[in-house]
Amino acid sequence: MIVMGLSMGAQTIGELTVTVTTSETGGNYAPRNIVAIWVEDDNGNFVKTLLAYANTRKTHLNTWQATTTSAGTAFNTTDAITGATRSSHSTRTCSWDGTDFNNLDVADGTYYLWLELTDKNSTGNFSSFQFTKGVDDQNLTPDDVPSFASIVINWDAIIASTFAQNEYPNISIHPNPSKGVFTVLGDNIEVVEVRTISGELISISTSTVVDISSTKPGFYLVTIKTNKTKVIKKLIKE
């Protein structure tokens, strides 16, 4: 874990990974099931959906429907893994990049991971688990709950990014999101490095125009070194 420039209201860049094995609730459509996994903040406000296997039957995921509707964005699946009703049970995996459904970085603090599954035309089983988004890594293995077993929740912190946005507003990346070619804007830029969220070096250049078109879509960290400082920005590659 790398941590730099911490300040009040920090927005630590990192990734939450979730793994869980589902099972039936005893409904009349079993083993067919619909399931949603999402994040809420400490006040119960919807943050982002991570997975939604539901489509036409999604209205029976009543808890997920209520929280997304309350946020004014019913059944929002921005950046989520999505698909139709599942025909059987299995291990489901998804992740969260620390942004909300508007793709804005959220503040560090207490959050809740929610899981909901049903195999009938009514509410099934749902549970939530608290975790902390911050500079410290977390590895949580909660006890099994109805319809959800072998639960693993990992938060891997990378870097606190508030300072880059607030203290150096003259340094920016355009466009962001990008298809792969982007320009770093600012004064006295000497080196531009691009790394994966896990820290793997993808590109290093003295040019302010960078091409990572050959890499897969996702989130990358761009380190911009000037003659006075070093700034880290998050890049979204579409």
**What is the structural class?**
mainly beta
Instruction: Estimate the helix proportion, in percent.
Output: under 10%
Domain count, please report it: 2
Strand order of the largest sheet: 4-3-2-6-7
**Overall pLDDT level:** 89
Query: H/E element string?
Result: EEEHEEEEEEHEEEEEEE
Low-confidence stretches at least 5 residues in length (pLDDT < 50)?
Answer: 1-8, 162-166
Helical run tally:
2
Gyration radius, rounded? 20 Å
Coarse morphology: elongated
Work out the number of β strands. 16
Task: Report on this structure.
It is a single chain. It is elongated, with a radius of gyration of 20 Å. It has 238 residues and is mainly beta. The strands form four sheets. The protein has a five-stranded mixed sheet, covered by helices on one side. It has a four-stranded antiparallel sheet with strand order 5-1-9-8, with no helix packed on it. The chain has two helices and 16 strands. Residues 1-8 and 162-166 have low confidence and may be disordered.
